[in-house]
Amino acid sequence: MSGTHLAVLSALLSSVMTYLGVHLTIHPPETPKKKRIYKSAFIVCGLTSVLLIGLQARQNERELKQLPRDVAEYIKNTMPPGALFTRTLVPAAPTGMIAMVDGSEAKMAIGYADQIQAFLRKQGEPPKQVRGESNLDFVVRSNAWYSRVMNEYNKVYAAPAATLVDSLIKKNLLELQVAELARNPVNPLGIKALAIQIQVAGTKLATQETQ
Fold this sequence. Notes:
Layout: H1 3-26, H2 32-78, H3 105-123, H4 135-156, H5 158-170, H6 177-183, H7 188-210
Helix pairs in contact: 1-2, 1-3, 2-7, 3-7, 5-6
């Protein structure tokens, strides 16, 4: 099950618990049997919520372990052959605004990390040199792809991500250096690493909110 599915299930479960709380406030149970039913429902929802958070934390841990292999693969597939070298400089992202849903910064962080990862999945795999393609053609095609991805990320996602990271750092949920990564992820691999860091921090914060 993907992180997106887990986040959606967690959000749905939270909505159910909120509805039950409002319903009980307006219509208190009249019999001991109904009280036991509602109490059991809250217990089941609470335990399920903890389970979902645990599964998401485990998935985040797997992705963090996979990151070094992704780095190696990225270097292998994107290093221009021979003496051809290129360098892309990405400007620092301005501070942006991001909306908080249901007053939960944890849901906001997890949801925004899912949005960033969905954006990366939409871009497809990084370019690889194909048979018969010259070194120069590969470099030009590869640079065009990375430039397009980074321009779109900076236009839509960079500013809110930087604002969110600053907030999570203040809560001691992220290391200070993540702020630099948020301001200038440099390439899609940096964006992926940033999304994972935000998702891990959001999962930690969700655990704190449920305690």
